[in-house]
Amino acid sequence: MNKKILLSTLLGISSFGIMAQDANKAFAITSDGNADHIWMNIRQIDLGTGQVTKTIFQRSKSNFVFTDLNTKKVVNQTTNNPNIFTSKEYPTGSMVAAAAFDQRNNKLFFIPMRIGELRWVELNIKNETPKFYSTSSDALAFANSNPMKLDEANNITRMVIAADGNGYALSNDGNHFIKFTTGRKPVITELGALIDDEKNGAISVHNKCSSWGGDMLADAFGKLYIISASRNVFVIDIDTRVASFKGTITGLPANFTSNAAAVNANGDIVLGSANVFAGYYVAKLSDLKASPIANSDKQYNASDFANGNLLLQKEADAARKKGEYVPLIDNLFSNSDKNVFPNPVTGSNFSVLFQNQKPGNYTLLITDISGRTLQSQIVNISKGTQTATVSLKTKPSNGVYIVKALGEDKQIAFTERIVVQ
Predict the structure, then answer these.
(1) CB 98, CB 111: distance < 8 Å
(2) Listed residue (321, 75, 185) closest to 84, CA to CA
(3) In this structure, what CATH number is given to the domain that contains residue 360?
(4) Quick check: 301 and 27 in contact, CB under 8 A?
(5) Strands 349-354 and 340-341: what pairing?
(6) What is the C-alpha radius of gyration for the chain, rounded to an integer number of angstroms?
(7) Residue 297, Cβ density class (10 Å: 0-12 exposed, 13-18 middle, ≥19 buried)
(8) CATH of the domain at 97
(9) pLDDT tens digit sequence for 64-107
(10) Torsion angle, CA of 312/315/321/326, rounded to 10 degrees?
(11) For 189, which DSSP code?
(12) For the whole model, what pTM was predicted?
């Protein structure tokens, strides 16, 4: 009996360790590690140890496939490209300072600093040539410039996937706040300029000295957080675009610019610098006091971190357990591919679109916000594009609901939010 208890305990500890390790997984845009400042490489890092664990893409060395979704042009790169710093056909050309990890679809989104295109790399490919994709939009036209010019105001330097499942990006000067969906055909929208909270005083979100550069984080209640290169923290209300100054991070070395930020497994902020090779630091949102992560990597400086964790997740979970209203569903759904139509649902029927899914039986679940199943049905999907009709047995009250498609392996094929009116 004691041996069984011990074994169960060890297995539990092991499982917890694996989960914690996965929660600390993040991605970094880094230099080559030769005391350089060329941010064109993508590496996987562990936020707990502060160590690089894997190289996803390395400039001038990694092969790649790069597909422009607008022109349908595909570039297969198997040799060194001498024009990687200026070529729009090189995935990280003109360097990158903003990235966001879409945990649901396992994609790393980014926008090169002087190329106004939303790009991403598929991260579910193992031991294969990385596959990059790119799409352009009028909403990003402001970011196009000569790759060798230092027009820093329009550079995209902050990006994150928020609790609503959408991506958000921000120019250096705070005058271009961008929203993008994360599906196969992203929709990119210019939301306008950020607005300073009247309580900010002299510390404006638009000021170059205090507020440019850095990174962006999201919390589980739907807010965004700018951490500028100058260590100042602003809280962003997405709906109003108001930026409220929260405070300044202390405890960092004098020449440490806070360019990279991500949320670790404990819900704390891990910081990296593009300016110095000083390792990683960690700070709590509550007091913004930073301390070094012992023995963290000092070889690669980083222009950006990205992972799927949200600030204040524990607080949001606790609020839900108490029955309190939390407005968002923490990356549970993706509203980007419009798999359900019409949406809003005004009658008793709606359609669900299946594209590029494996043939087989799928279970369609309709649940409420709390996860309670209201209705389910089995649909058989053959190869190609197919539409399934769902008839609501009892039309629920007006509100927001979730449609989940589960494969035969009980894994979620896709999830989408619907509004019933």
Answers:
(1) yes
(2) 75
(3) 2.60.40.2550
(4) no
(5) antiparallel
(6) 22
(7) buried
(8) 2.120.10
(9) 999 999 999 999 886 566 678 888 889 999 999 999 999 878 89
(10) -60
(11) E
(12) 0.77
Structural domain contains residue 325: no
The pairing of strands 64-68 and 131-136 is parallel
What's the pLDDT at 82? 66
pLDDT of residue 98: 98
- Structural domain harbouring 275: 11-317
Q: Is the dihedral of CA 241, 244, 250, 255 positive or negative?
A: positive
Q: Is the dihedral of CA 388, 393, 398, 404 positive or negative?
A: negative
**Pick from 166, 169, 167, 185: nearest CA to 72:** 185
- C-alpha 345 chain-centroid distance: 29
ω into 147 cis (within 30 of 0): no
Q: Name the phi and psi angles at 316, rounded to 5.
A: -65, -40
Last residue of a domain, one of 317, 352, 385: 317
93 in a domain, yes or no? yes
Percentage of the residues of the chain whose pLDDT score is greater than 70:
88
Give the tens place of pLDDT for each residue, 151-179.
799 999 999 999 888 999 999 999 999 99
Q: DSSP letter for 293, please.
A: P
Cα 337–160–403 angle (5° rounding)? 30
Q: For the chain, which ranges sit under pLDDT 70?
A: 1-21, 78-82, 126-127, 146-150, 325-338, 383-385
**Strand 242-248 relative to strand 195-196, pairing:** parallel
Decide if 322 is inside a domain.
no
Q: Where does a domain end: 256, 285, 317?
A: 317
Together in a domain, 357 and 272: no
Amino acid identity, residue 207? N
